[in-house]
Description:
Layout: H1 3-10, H2 31-37, E1 45-47, H3 48-55, H4 62-67, E2 84-86, H5 87-94, H6 97-116, H7 120-123
Antiparallel strand pairs: 1-2
Helix pairs in contact: 2-3
Amino acid sequence: MNTHVNERIGSGAAAGAKSPTGSRPPELISATAKELLNLRRLPAMLNTAQTAALIGLAEHDIPILVSVGLLEPLGDPPPSAVKHFATVQVMELAGEIALLSKMRNALYEHWRNKNARKSPVEARPRHARNGHH
């Protein structure tokens, strides 16, 4: 376990207190995610952002997991609808190392395929920072 990070999370520095130099330390998780994780009792249904926070993923990763069948929204929502997920199911997924590994591999594969589809022109940097091409 990373005790240095855990100490920072539990300390006043993570709660928004300024460091001795006067700058704020980097925020490890969003305020919304922190609020969700500090609830005494989680809601029965989670939206996409809450689901991502509970699993430890980015919000844009959730639709990828839904598309490959590793995460299932409640009901039969139309494609453009806000998706909700059962907290019980999300917690079960988060507790299974094999499923977490499948999720991570699905995300790696998605981005690998997406990046491979880029044309060589899209993959090149547009302009060098010093003004030379």
